[in-house]
Write a structure and sequence with these properties.
- The chain crosses the membrane at residues 7-28, 55-75, 82-101, 113-136, 157-177.
- Pfam families: SpoIIM.
- InterPro entries: SpoIIM-like.
- 85% of the residues lie in helices and 0% in strands.
- It has 185 residues and is mostly helical.
- It has one domain (3-18, 52-91, 104-182).
Length: 185
């Protein structure tokens, strides 16, 4: 199994673990889940999110920012991708727990997450793989440190470009398809 596939599986596991933690925290402390949910809503612009193209731009730019942090953060001991994916998983778990506690049917919750999530989550993982590969090239690569740094940076950029391309698709799905499928448009 290639290093990139191993990293993909590990990072996906970290995200899923974070989701489980968030879900359990939401079950154990509904007040915390509600507070976290309200903070997220406020960060995303309050009670009413934009629609259509404005929503697409908001989602895409936010996700590009997160993917860039993940990829560039990989140089910091390779740890930032793990932390960001864990945190994002926790957020997803809390949102799932909170919305379920408010009586939202499970099918609607899944339709609110899965259509774009099947593209968005792998995109974040790919950005993470790029960042971790940059770190590993610097630490384990051959040649002078400057050359290893540059090689690793180029590797990271290729992964980040792929991730951003996928995030473009995910944002289109999240802005234009997910709301219709989930009945939230």
């Amino acid at each position: 199994m290639s290093r990139n596939l191993k990293l993909f599986i590990i990072l996906l596991g970290v995200f899923i673990f974070g989701t489980l933690i968030g879900w359990i925290v939401g079950l154990l402390d509904p007040n915390l889940a509600e507070h976290a949910y309200m903070v997220l809503r406020k960060l995303l612009g309050g009670n009413k999110l934009p629609e259509g193209f404005e929503l697409f731009i908001l989602i895409f730019l936010n996700n590009v920012r997160v993917a860039t942090i993940i990829a560039f953060g990989g140089i910091i001991l390779g740890i930032v991708p793990f932390l960001v994916l864990l945190f994002n998983g926790i957020v997803v778990g809390i949102v799932i727990s909170y919305t379920a506690s408010r009586g939202v049917p499970g099918s609607k919750i899944l339709l609110s997450i899965i259509p774009h999530g099947i593209v968005e989550i792998p995109a974040f993982i790919i950005a993470g793989i790029g960042g971790i590969n940059w770190f590993l090239e610097v630490v384990k690569g051959e040649g002078e440190l400057e050359n290893r740094f540059k090689r690793g940076f180029k590797i990271m950029l290729r992964f980040l470009i792929l991730a951003i391309s996928l995030l473009f698709i995910a944002a289109l799905i999240e802005a234009f398809i997910t709301p219709k499928l989930a009945g939230i448009s």
